[in-house]
Write a structure and sequence with these properties.
By secondary structure, the protein is mainly alpha-helical. 71% of the residues lie in helices and 0% in strands. It contains five helices and no strands. Helix 2 packs antiparallel against helix 4. The longest helix has 24 residues. The relative contact order is 0.20.
């Protein structure tokens, strides 16, 4: 997959599930600030649960390894962004994020 191509074609992500996942992804920086200011780390845990739910819904609704290369790369960029947020969020909570079980 080509990350640069994917970033250029994020506009192809038009389905409701994709938009919801991207919306969840975009909330992370604001949520971290809010959780820190309120001293409520559980906000991060709840957010990660909601992000996992949105990812699950999107993954079940669409084929990520699509024949259309631009769409495939855009979807893979979206899923890699979610992965990075899971890693960062779990790290903030001092929870390990294993690559495999």
């Amino acid at each position: 997959w080509d990350q640069d191509q994917g970033l250029q074609h994020l506009s192809l992500l038009q389905h409701t599930e994709e938009k919801e996942l991207m919306s969840q992804i975009s909330r992370f920086p604001e949520l971290v600030v809010s959780a820190a200011l309120a001293r409520e780390p559980h906000q991060i845990a709840h957010y990660l649960r909601d992000l996992a739910s949105a990812l699950h819904v999107c993954y079940n609704a669409h084929i990520f390894i699509a024949d259309d290369g631009d769409l495939r790369d855009a979807r893979l960029c979206m899923i890699m962004a979610a992965k990075q947020i899971f890693v960062n969020g779990l790290k903030l909570l001092s929870v390990s994020a294993p690559e495999q079980m």
